[in-house]
Amino acid sequence: MRVFIVKNYEELGVQAAQIVSGQIYVKPNSILGLATGSTPLSMYRHLVNIYQEYGLDFSEVTTFNLDEYVGLPEDDKNSYHYYMYNHLFRHVNLDRMKIHLPDGMAVNIDEECLAYEKAIQDCGGIDLQVLGIGQNGHIGFNEPDEKFEAYTHEVKLKQDTIEANARFFDDVSEVPTRAVSMGIKTIMQAKKVVLLANGSNKAEAVYRAVCESITPTNPASILQLHQDVIVIIEEGAATYLRDRLTLQQKERILFFNKIHECNGIIAS
Ligand code: F6R
Fold it and tell me: Is 38's C-beta closer than 6 angstroms to any atom of ligand 1?
């Protein structure tokens, strides 16, 4: 696990976009796993810039989103379909046939989960997975639980997640209570993972993900077992790490203050 602390949210977006564009440059037909929420917005903005300014070619890229609410149609402004088209897909030359999000309106959600998982496997798995992190440690919508759910599945959202996401809705009562999410194994099978965190409200979750024991009650902790994870955190989200990291933990985690040191890694 390599942890990079960047000075602000804008820088987080720049660095994350560089990693994604580096991935596409090295492998034009990359399979990308994508996240929604407030954290990756600056990354998407910078990716669109890179496309417009430097002609980054998305035409062979395939995307799979982590999750989607159950019961929101694609044109609902709070659906993750809407978010992705609004912030990335309609601005770049992605082939619409290569874009995948779970269908939260599927009549049979279990069948939809199986089909989504199969589509990922049929493409050969995800090359680069972008993740945000919930305050409760969720990745995708894998909520704290007694066991790690392996594959794409239907999730009952925890009350704290519903409350955290209520900021995007007019009222908390409008937040869907269920979602379809890639599973932990789906995520862990990605060849590379980039975990992004922004804001002091994520500081504890980041610390727990990086330093505390691996348990399904703290889903992001599983990433400690992945062989190629880059964690990019903005200063505010890094406060617990800075304050609490023991020397022993620092030795275990490659810990950088500037992402620039990892440029060589991206191109390899
Ligand atoms: C979104 C997702 C979630 C979010 C997490 C953080 O596709 O899978 O895990 O990444 O809830 O959300 P924000 O970035 O809004 O704080």
Answer: yes
CA 209 – CA 213 distance, rounded (Å): 8
State if pTM tops 0.90. Answer: yes
Q: How far is CA 1 from the centre of its chain?
A: 16
pLDDT at position 264, please?
36
Ligand 1 mutation pick, 39, 70, 126, 161, max ligand atoms within 8 A of CB = 39
The C-alpha atoms of residue 167 and residue 242 are separated, in whole angstroms, by 29
Tokens of 174: 């409008």
Average pLDDT over residues 225-252: 86
Average pLDDT over residues 79-96: 98
Ligand 1 and 67: CB distance under 6 A: yes
Contact 90, 81 (CB under 8 A): no
**Sign, CA torsion 52/58/59/65:** negative
Q: Which residues 6+ apart lie within 8 Å of 263 measured at CB?
A: 18
Distance CA 141, CA 67 (A): 7
Q: What are phi and psi of 131, to 5 degrees?
A: -130, 145
68 in Cβ contact with 32 (< 8 Å): no
Average pLDDT for the chain: 92
